């Protein structure tokens, strides 16, 4: 998959390389099951038409730009993680459009003409509630007229789980509430993060890479992937810091990158028992 970060400086040069395509359109934070359905619908159409699959997304989040930075979006994943998932889903190209106030000011028709038609889109798949153009005045119902009938829209219906619409906002709220065991039903897999190992005096800390979201304070069961090995650990989140309780018994090297999968939040009874066990082990080791 080829990745191109499109800005005002390289847009014209990028257009020289575009070709007819089927496009999946959206912000795709978290690439949850709803997003995956949009991409799968686009992939199916691309294979039928024998055209490449293009994913077009945007960064930063529109709300951050339009609020002059006053509203900070707690992203679920960085761009590199999206790239990895998009490639696994079969995308051929990933255009990341730099979202600016000038871009936000485009009318719906201007957006379709200069960012969909100019980029070769013949069919465009997006969620049922996707909007585009100034103030979000364009939607999947206006796509045909805004493209002068040149683009066929593929509107993907709402995807629900347990009666709730699957959305990035819902998943963010679950992470921030520490309800990690519920997330796989919406995301398609456990919520995963990456960070670097830092040794402290009595524990191992994981410093998150930018654009990952830290769960609520508490104790969690996680799996840690490192050196092609996976181990189950107890993670403690407190005051915005992430500690691996059993990290000192795992062969970490400082500043190396690890991937954590969040399994579930541990009950208070387990926490009290584990604290007592850790205190006992520490006092026993002192006497050796």
From TrEMBL:
Pfam families: FAD_syn. It catalyses: FMN + ATP + H(+) = FAD + diphosphate. Its EC number is 2.7.7.2. One of its GO terms (biological process) is FAD biosynthetic process. It comes from the Bacteria. Pathway: Cofactor biosynthesis; FAD biosynthesis; FAD from FMN: step 1/1. GO terms for molecular function: ATP binding; FMN adenylyltransferase activity; riboflavin kinase activity. Keywords: ATP-binding, FAD, Flavoprotein, FMN, Kinase, Nucleotide-binding, Nucleotidyltransferase, Transferase. It is an enzyme of class 2 (transferase). Residues 18-169 form the FAD synthetase domain. NCBIfam families: cyt_tran_rel (TIGR00125). PANTHER family: RIBOFLAVIN KINASE (PTHR22749:SF6), RIBOFLAVIN KINASE/FMN ADENYLYLTRANSFERASE (PTHR22749). Belongs to the RibF family. This is FAD synthase. It comes from Neobacillus niacini.
């Amino acid at each position: 998959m080829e990745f191109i970060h499109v800005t005002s400086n390289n847009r014209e040069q990028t257009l020289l390389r575009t070709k007819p395509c089927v496009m999946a359109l959206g912000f795709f934070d978290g690439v949850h099951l709803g997003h995956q359905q949009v991409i799968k619908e686009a992939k199916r159409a691309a294979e039928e038409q024998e055209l490449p699959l293009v994913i077009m997304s945007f960064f930063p989040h529109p709300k951050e730009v339009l609020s002059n930075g006053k509203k900070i979006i707690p992203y679920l994943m960085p761009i590199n993680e999206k790239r990895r998932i998009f490639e696994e889903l079969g995308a051929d190209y990933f255009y990341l459009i730099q979202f600016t106030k000038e871009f936000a000011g485009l009318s719906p028709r201007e957006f379709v003409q200069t960012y969909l038609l100019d980029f070769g889109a013949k069919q465009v798949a997006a969620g049922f509630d996707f909007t585009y153009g100034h103030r979000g005045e364009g939607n999947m119902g206006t796509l045909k007229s805004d493209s002068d009938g040149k683009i066929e829209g593929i509107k993907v219906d709402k995807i629900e789980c347990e009666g709730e619409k699957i959305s990035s906002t819902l998943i963010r709220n679950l992470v921030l509430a520490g309800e990690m065991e519920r997330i796989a039903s919406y995301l398609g897999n456990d919520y995963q993060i990456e960070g670097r190992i830092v040794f402290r005096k009595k524990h191992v800390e994981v410093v998150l890479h930018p654009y990952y979201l830290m769960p609520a304070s508490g104790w969690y069961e996680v799996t840690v992937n490192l050196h092609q090995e996976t181990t189950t650990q107890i993670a403690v989140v407190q005051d915005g810091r992430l500690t691996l309780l059993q990290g000192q018994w795992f062969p970490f090297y400082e500043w190396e990158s690890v991937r954590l999968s969040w399994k579930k939040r541990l009950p208070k009874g387990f926490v009290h028992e584990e604290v007592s066990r850790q205190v006992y082990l520490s006092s026993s080791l002192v006497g050796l």
